[in-house]
Structure prediction request, 352 residues.
Amino acid sequence: MQTAGYATAHYGKWHINGGGPAANGYDEGDGNIGNEYAHEYADPNPADIFGMAKRAAAFMEKNRNANKPFFIQLSWHALHAPQNAMNATLAKYAAKMGGNAQDKRVGSAAIAENLDTGVGMVVDAVDRLGLGENTFIIYMSDNGSGGGGGGRRGGRRFGLSGGKGSVWEGGIRSPMIIRGPGVPANSWCHERVVGYDFYPTYCEWAGIPPSNLPRKIEGGSIAHLLADGKGTVTRPRKEMVFHFPHYQSGDGPHSALFLGDMKLMKFYETGRLALFDIKTDISEQTDLAKQNTAQVAELDALLVKYLKDVDAQMAVPNPNYDPNKPPTVRKGGRGGSKTNRGRKRGQRGEKQ
Prediction:
């Protein structure tokens, strides 16, 4: 983005080491910080929500005045530190929900409203500064919910399986909203996209030619989807892979591969391979693996090749594993197969 003349800023959680924003190409940033930062700010600036919004607005105004295009990444700390929400908002939801300000459900609701206010401050600043005609605003979540598991209605399961820390749909299917020039209000697009599609998308918007992008880039631009929600994303590979070699959920290390509407899931502790038609079974309740063995073998071969090609991190033997001790399930989502036996651990799993 800087090669195309953009000023760049990253505010909020960095959380991936590597020296922080300044060491990775950003002109401005909040440093090499993680989730702990959320707890340092309470009313009147819960989880630094309003501080981040104000810094973003100031950065936009400075670069508008300099007639310079800008790119801003806002990685909000909320919904971490829910009890640090505004006192008035905590009281509002305590009354609504019949709880008290220390109830986590109350805090989550309250800080969600505070976050909504902070996002609104950023959107209002774009409009106030006259930047709405040439600025895209993308709002998205980094993962699914912390609960998952779905529910039952009329004896049937509904909702999404799994949650944060899993590659079930409840862990990887998350909200995304885009506002910007040429995007019709209240329109929808149902094409499956993934976070690494944004890199080529931003470059297309910035006028950076595809030939300047890294040769092994995995994503594809989604810019052409925004006018009418139709079309597909062209990527170097037709398959899309989600890989989680850690023990954050009861499923242990596992992967998922999409090809069209079919989704293969592989669980490394048990060797289980499961197959779902996501178009007709978004809750992942009907495993089609046994009646589609040839397709399962084909998709598994694609998954193995992909993980090898990208030198994916895998779980490694845990020399301290004790089969007589109960497994420790890390905080996160629940999938459909409780396979965490603790025999292995991801190389970085202790840091997740």
Q: What stands out?
A: The chain has six helices and 13 strands. Confidence is low (pLDDT under 50) at residues 151-155, 332-352. The first helix runs from residue 49 to 65.
